[in-house]
Amino acid sequence: QTTPDKQPSPAPVKEVNCTPSDAPSITILSPNGGEIYKSGQRITVTWKSCNLSKTTPIQILLEGNFSGQSWGTDPVSTFNLGATGYGEGKLVNTGSATVTLPTTGATQWSGYSSIMEYGNYYKIYIARNLADHLDASDTSDASFTINGPSSVLSEWKTYTNADFGFSFQYPSNWKLSEDKSKKEVTIDTND
Hints:
Blueprint: E1 25-30, E2 36-38, E3 42-50, E4 57-64, E5 77-80, E6 83-85, E7 88-89, E8 91-92, E9 96-100, E10 119-127, E11 137-139, E12 144-147, E13 157-161, E14 166-170, E15 175-179, E16 184-188
Parallel strand pairs: 2-12
Antiparallel strand pairs: 1-3, 3-9, 4-5, 4-8, 4-10, 6-7, 10-11, 10-12, 13-14, 15-16
């Protein structure tokens, strides 16, 4: 599914003009800010390029910035969505790629580790490849949101015992029976 959870106000459509004398460049079209996705969701990243061949290796990174830093400083967290490692593109310059958003932190290249926080903290970064990213790269214009997966706890039931002043949650497929005369609660965990 490549559709965000809800449709935000559309980001302005970027005008991408290219002449043969222009320097090589990449312009991200989507996600470009305001979208809302779920962790683990497959999304389509789209871009336009100028003076780069369709076989040019590119990489796609998800950058997270949730420590209050302004964009323009190094991101707090970077997830490698479309490259095998530093300077090695595994995708080519086709103008779109379907990637899977991370669900948890994952060790990245060269021993760096990233953490996943849910919220409006993320941008896509696309580059010719990391080794020569200065001559052809782009970052989403604004942040987009990645929410956590649906919680399984939302499907759990709650048992409350007012006499003894406690409660607990249990999976909805468990069977709970209470014998007040024996002051006993039995839970059957068999499906």
